[in-house]
# Entry
Amino acid sequence: MNASEFFRRLAAVIFGLTLLLGGLLKLMDPIGAQLVVESYLNFCHLSFLRFASLHLAFFFNLLECFVGAALIAGAWTSWIRWVSLGLMSFFTLLTALLWALNPPMDCGCFGELVHLSHVQSFVKNVVLLLLWVAAFVPTKKVARQHLRRPIVVGFTFAVMVFFGVMSYIHLPMLDLTDLRAGTELTEGKVALLGADGEYHDELALEGNVLLISVYEPSALSRRDLERIERAANLARGVGIKPIIAAARPQKAEDLPDGAFVSDRKALMSLNRSNGGATLVSDGQIVRKWSAGRVRATSLERTLAADSTDLIAGRIVRGRLTFGFLSVAIFVLLLV
# Structure
């Protein structure tokens, strides 16, 4: 490989790595990616497509991951380069519109990890387009590739899909929201509007509270409602006060019994699981569970443990797991 080919390959790898990292961060937080897509739909006056926002988020995140993985591995270069150009051109045009119109939203390029301004997002995409030019212009006939490359891309893509689905069913391995464990849940961050028309936010700040959040009440099945009631009963059994907070439903009958009304986005930041439970101790967020995963033993162990050590341990494990997964995928694709 001569110097020219080396730099072309390096540009393709950097371009692919950026796409892969962005897609992977959003894939590991499907609900956060759904919120990003919803903001884009609102911006484009396509809010009637909100029902498909989660599916659109999965599609674009998987597309970013697949294209990024293929570029790093050098697989299917004859056509993947044109797919990557189309994808990057679309993102660049979109961020140019955001820069010009300056709506109050985040581009969501790297999920919750990095928040870029509209001009930063646009510049980042222009740089990636320049990397594409460096990697693929002038175009050259691609030699027949070894079968190993598509197999490696397919395997790593399957791994990413698996972790993405697990992150949706359970909780993201990496919580980067404004209401992550260790955050002080000061009054007003999660509103609790009671049936009396008054706010009772202070109830979540006193003692040990299991805050059960429902951001899509209409999506709850009878089994989900039973899980919520069971989690509340388990909390009472170990001396924890249960509070149910739900987004305002379209139909009043969709609101779980005894639930306070709260802001949908705040509940999605609090817990990515619809019907998930969050333990709050004297106003500090200590631990989160996905819907149906609350157990009396885990509640008791959490109460008995030192909250600082517990929070730090879970944060470190999440970061190490995500870091190891990302590095392993990159090395596997590159070797």
The longest strand covers residues 208-214. The chain has a mean pLDDT of 93. Residues 307-334 form the longest helix (28 residues).
